[in-house]
Write a structure and sequence with these properties.
heterodimer, A: mainly alpha, Rna Polymerase Sigma Factor, Chain: A, Arc Repressor Mutant, subunit A, 2 domains, 74% helix, B: alpha+beta, Porin, ten-stranded antiparallel beta sheet, four-stranded antiparallel beta sheet
Chain lengths: 185, 404
């Protein structure tokens, strides 16, 4: 099946086409969900919910941009919605985590395997991680993040600043980021 | 790794680093997604069972139309077992348009005349009748002259239980007769107790892969089922039933462990202490058993019957609860897994299909014997566990039923 046939089949609720579409994009999208989620199982739940939206809203896709980008946008929004339903996440956004930097530094485990960057990101508190994921990786502006997470734009900026600082510590600790480079920066 | 890192490139670095990060989702995600997107495809076997049930109902209703409107007044006349067929008529259409049906069989003796039609007759719209079909009618002997043969009869009036027929004989005489509908009396409830020794077939596979190498079918093991049920006749050919049963199943595992298996087993399930005793030996045979209580709800359909024998087919859905589990198997791969009670699914749904012969002993007691297949819809293990197992049980059901 060509990409076009898969897309048309999926729009027509063809199970085989939907499975092909899912198989093509689900690994990457699970990687996206994993950066937001607490565990792989949570990430899979987000992925499942996201793909239900993808399949039900696929008729709205007008081939104007890349399909992957369109799916990714839906998946990210689903992740945010799932996180927002979680009360702990809302609390995290309201709390300043600056004091946690030192305690985190002491407890950082060594990650020496693949997916190390992602695992480093996942070590951040969930509020920081969400803002960092949205801004640095997904390309949202602070204004968009503020609207998405129901916080001030300035809060998004400050959260991102702290998240970035914390992530640098984690990356250095794990040998991913060279200390001297960091100091120079 | 980050030779070219600078603060300005931080976002770019993160974006590039994570851009191609992929993870393989478990099969559970797609299965749930598929079931939500295509609810019609969920549990195809349930759909089949429901279809089976409605097919039975449909067949029963069709047959039942005949049985309900039997007009039988033969009990008013002396019994005569010498019911001799004296005339047969095929493709005979009644002349009047009140009742149009093929008269295919007539029994006539000194005490009664009995006629059968081949199919449901079609009534005129203007006839006042609640009689949909008249497959069998018994008439008084004086309704027809001696030494004549019944040629045809027509329903000309029906009010409630009273029917008026016009009968024709072979010498072209006609006579108007009146008769009443007598409904058959049947025992409505039956109590049944049964026991079913069976052999099981367990099919296991890993949830996160479709690789055939990762699936496994186990050896056959002995199981046992015992229970009781109340059956209620809803028509002449169909009865519904509900009851309670106990299922005992056992599995015998012969495992040879290695250190690697031990590690995997321990990491799979945090029961190292439990496992240590078993890992000390290089080869172990574990006898594991489970007890399950079920509430079978279903239907039975009478396919054929003779004087003493009846042939039935039936299907049940069985919500089940696992209440005792002595399963402490040690495995690391598909044949070698780590199981413990907390990993077992307590609530499950089973279904069974069966066919059996009823032999009428006496005093309304019947012996039931026949094969049964039982299928477990959900995996034996909880969703969180990567292992999925389907259970099939093939048994011989032996029961006693008594009409209440």
């Amino acid at each position: 099946m060509t990409e076009e046939e898969i897309l048309d089949g999926s729009k027509n609720n063809n199970a085989a086409a939907q499975e092909l579409l899912y198989q093509k994009y689900s690994p990457k999208m699970l990687g996206v969900c994993y950066r937001f989620a607490k565990s792989k199982m949570d990430a899979e739940d987000m992925l499942q919910e996201g793909f239900i939206k993808v399949f039900t809203q696929l008729n709205q896709y007008r081939n104007s941009g890349s399909l992957e980008g369109w799916i990714r946008r839906i998946i990210v929004n689903t992740c945010i919605n799932v996180l927002k339903k979680n009360k702990r996440f809302s609390d995290c956004l309201d709390i300043s985590f600056a004091e946690n930097l030192h305690s985190l530094e002491k407890n950082i485990p060594s990650i020496i395997q693949a997916k190390q960057i992602v695992e480093c990101i996942r070590l951040l508190p969930i509020g920081y991680r969400t803002v960092l994921n949205l801004y640095a990786i997904e390309g949202y502006s602070h204004k968009e993040i503020g609207a998405l997470l129901d916080i001030q734009e300035s809060s998004s900026r400050s959260q991102y600043f702290r998240a970035k600082a914390m992530l640098e510590i984690v990356l250095v600790k794990n040998g991913i980021l060279d200390q001297s480079k960091k100091e120079l920066a | 790794m980050m030779e070219d890192f600078s603060t300005d490139q931080f976002e770019t670095f993160l974006k590039l680093s994570t851009e191609n990060f992929k993870m393989r989702p478990s099969a559970r995600v797609w299965n749930s997604l598929f079931n939500k997107m295509h609810p019609g495809s969920k549990w195809p076997s349930i759909s089949t069972a429901i279809l089976f049930f409605f097919l039975f109902c449909f067949l029963s209703t069709n047959k039942n139309n005949h049985s309900k409107i039997i007009t039988d007044i033969s009990h008013q006349f002396p019994k005569n077992n010498d019911k001799k067929n004296i005339a047969s008529f095929t493709n005979h259409q009644t002349k009047k348009n009140n009742l149009k049906s093929d008269l295919v069989n007539v029994q006539q003796n000194p005490h009664f005349i009995k006629a059968s039609f081949s199919e449901d007759p079609i009534l005129d719209d203007n006839i006042e009748s609640n009689l949909i079909s008249t497959p069998e009618i018994c008439l008084t002997p004086h309704d027809i002259k001696k030494d004549t043969e019944l040629k045809a009869f027509e329903l000309i009036k029906n009010i409630g239980q009273h029917f008026t027929f016009l009968i024709h004989n072979n010498i072209n005489e006609t006579k108007e007769i009146n008769t009443v509908k007598i409904s058959e009396k049947r025992n409505q409830f039956t109590y049944q107790i049964y026991a079913t020794p069976s052999m099981d077939y367990r099919y296991s596979n890993q949830k996160n892969t479709k690789n055939a190498m990762d699936s496994n079918a186990s050896n056959l093991h002995l199981n046992f089922e015992a229970g009781g049920a109340i059956l209620m006749n809803v028509s002449k050919y169909i009865r519904i039933k509900a009851g309670m049963q106990l299922n005992f199943s056992q599995i015998k595992n012969d495992n040879t462990e290695s250190n690697n298996e031990k590690n995997i087993a321990a990491s799979l399930y945090n029961s190292v202490d439990l496992m240590n005793n078993k890992f000390n030996n290089t080869s172990n045979i574990f006898k594991n058993s489970t007890y399950q209580i079920s509430i079978p709800i279903g239907t039975e359909f009478e396919i054929m019957s003779s004087n003493k024998l009846k042939w039935f087919a039936g299907a049940t859905i069985q919500p089940s609860y696992l209440f005792v589990n002595n399963d402490h198997s040690v495995f690391t791969e598909l044949n070698n897994k780590v199981y413990q009670q907390s990993m077992m699914r307590e609530w499950n749904v089973n279904s069974s299909i069966e066919t059996f012969i009823n032999y009428d002993l006496k005093n309304n007691i019947e012996l039931n014997v026949g094969p049964q297949i039982r299928y477990q819809f959900l995996s034996t293990y909880k969703n969180a566990f990567q292992q999925s197992e389907r259970l099939y049980q093939f048994g011989l059901k032996i029961g006693i039923s008594k009409k209440l």
